[in-house]
Fold this protein.
Amino acid sequence: MSSSRPEQTVPGFIRFALELLRRELPQAYYQMCNSLAGRSAVVRVEGEELGIAGRPFELAFVALPRRPDITVETDCRTILRVIDAELTLEEAVRSGDLFVVGDRASLPRFHEALLTFVRGAVRSPGFPHLLEEFRWFAESRRGG
Amino acid sequence: MSFPGLDHLIQTRDCVRFPQPGDARGGWQKEWYHFCIMAPEVDVVVNLNVAGDMRPAARPGSRVARVIVLARERQWGGDLETIAERQIELLPGEVWMRLGQNRLRFSDGRFSLVAALQGRPLVVEATLEPQTMPLALGREVRVGLGSIDWFVLPRLSASGRVISGGRLHEFDGAPAYHDHNWGRWLWGHDFCWEWGFAHFEVAGEPWSLVYDRTLNRPRTHALELTLAVWRGSQLARIFSRREVGVGQSGYVDNGRPLRVPRPLAIAVPAAGGDVPRRLEVSAAVDGDRLRLTVELDDYAQILVPHETDLGTTVISEAAGRVRVEGLIRGSRIDASGRGIFEFLAA
């Protein structure tokens, strides 16, 4: 992907973020691949969906798997509240603002992949700008 | 308050060193200017720091600056903000830096400090006048594969204002502290540290102390251990290494402490276990002795991404009450005071 701006959809932001991570901190990206290798996930945010297949050296964006190993569902506001430390991940799950469904073997791997993503994002120079853009996107969507 | 030679000492020892050209480890260079102000209604911690940008995607030779402003009223608030390289201005050889809208300089015997977060309503504007001679060890302490040096002014008199949480706090003559670390090290190297300062009075006379202990990461080997005590403006005694014993007990249960930058808090295990409820430091040599007891109340945490791996160093800033007892150069000490202590865990 060579575009300098994400497509203005939630899947667009996720795809852009993962590509950005691969460019700016490949160590974190490949560690995520390792955590999710052989597993599939569906991320659902405010009605938009993205299928992800974990491969040894790639997080591939795929057609929605019929029986994903992990399903995550939330909304933009919850994502931002977790990023801003207003909610912990655990609190988001307990409050019902974040649904995570998966088997016992897959959930820890997804959790580890998510933490690796955060560790990578805070080290990647492009992420502060991307986060600002996501805030604008979430705000405009709420307003619109 | 001015002392012969103090301004020159500050200008030459507390000055900006960055960058040092021709340094094979230039990217490891760091300068951390740290200030604590204990105003009547609010404690403030300001840290202005500049470093070589070691992030893999950074342009070789580039720098990154961060501004940390923390304020403690009923609880800690604040944030850490990254400053774009084009907004970094340094004057090597002088105590002068401008990081975006944040400024520090030393002239006419006082520091002038302005720190203002962009994303939150927290602004600090202060002049700080040294009240003591400094502690300038003048020797680099090895930390991991690098080294660090330290300049300390344990007591300053701060005047200015803080806007925090929509409230204006003005202060005049508030007790304050300043130190400056510089050197070449990477976050994630094999080290951790704890240090703190305390102010107290003995028979109406101001006393100050600074404690620091730098260790390897497993805390099995002390790289540096010092307890320094000032009577009035003068350094009265330095205890070091084998003259100093350290004990800790309990842990502060802070609920959910402030942790900055906030997004990184997602990836760092829940807080707890890093800050002791009680710190005891005992020291004795040549007839002088001192026992420092610190009761720590609460803390905020600064999360520093490692430059060597995907781990995180956690720096806890804790406010506390101190009790000091002992005998220094014939003066009996039995006093209470306040201080701010820092605990770094990697």
In short: The mean pLDDT of chain B is 92. The interface with chain A takes residues 55-58, 82, 256, 259, 261-267, 270, 305, 310, 312 of chain B (CB under 8 Å). The longest helix of chain B spans residues 6-13.
